[in-house]
Structure prediction request, 378 residues.
Amino acid sequence: MSGEANVAKAGLEGIVAAESRISDVNGDKGELIYAGYDIHDLAEHSTFEEVIYLLWHGELPAGAALQQLKQRLSDETGLPTEIQELIGAIPRDANPMDMLRTVISALSFYDPDGADMSAEANERKAIRLTAKFPTIVTTFQRVRNGLKPIEPRKDLSIAGNFLFTLRGEEPDEVSTRTMDLAFVLHADHELNASTFAARVTAATLSDIYSAIVSAIGTLKGPLHGGANEGVIKNLLEIGSVDKVEPWVKQALAQKKKIMGFGHRVYHTEDPRATHLREMSRQLGDRTGEKKWYEMSVKMEEVMMREKHLNPNVDFYSASTYYALGIPTDLFTPIFACSRISGWTAHVLEQYKNNRLIRPRAEYVGPRGLKYVPIEERG
Ligand code: COA
Prediction:
């Protein structure tokens, strides 16, 4: 940038880059609201389907509205044959987030609304994307293991269907409720990196699929949604509660970042971590495999003592998903299956009141250099 200096802190820290009615984070108080409702209240009383409605419409559904949304979502869980074939053709050892990015990109070719950018068509696309995300993830998981994909059931919730189509058997109530709660907690988080990426793409008036592909690529990174996979890798490497403290101290001495700790906005406990910690504890009690929860608690204690850092949403979601028997490389895709609701809400909001997002860069390179032909360069 030339001329008047107006430089944001690195990483755009503290910069307000959009107006939104979808969600808000109060980092000092450790509060998160979705369209006015406290996350603790929603975690206790709501469901993922209701939260999707809330994020898209700015109010909780009344009357038949929730049932109608469930029906519309349920009608859209299936995948076009071409997409099933594409999933079958993806290398079995592909990273599932790369798979998801590629498949969502290809899915746009088969959307019946095509290039229609009307508000109604975009809402239908948001429904299709939200309904199909879990089916894509579980289809890939089955196909890469040589198993037949399973059709989602009309009578199950998104959470129930995720577990059903993953495992091929009807999930029990506790597992379904746990999954549903995880989906509620991950649904939206203000202007996080992947949501920002989606909004930047949408703000060029590109289509919703392109915006979501941007978001998937951004969520994958280990500083964002990829952290939950990093957490379980660490826990598996450490292996037992007594090794947690020396492992953490050594990693910190080597200036390594410990996945699942710290947050750009929260300076106190992430309210989502409070619920995920409890879920992890309960699942550990239930399965009798308490080790992962106990190791996590120990790691939290050491990180607080050594670095004054709190666990974030990704920390206890790792031991929670592990206790549910979910393959570790599906942890970040699960995050995406929930966050698609927030991403689409933000993209629709961006389209409603759009202006191109185009910040400036502070140029710190040289100026005024004279071009030298290649044969004369030293
Ligand atoms: N482990 C060890 N140290 C950490 C840390 C972690 N997880 N998170 C932050 N810190 C330290 C940094 O090293 C830095 O210390 P320094 O000032 O001595 O150099 C300080 O805390 C500030 O960290 P910084 O990376 O500048 O903060 P940020 O706001 O840019 O980053 C995160 C926020 C979330 C990216 C960062 O905390 C992180 O990388 N966490 C691990 C990845 C993760 O869990 N991501 C999911 C987020 S929901």
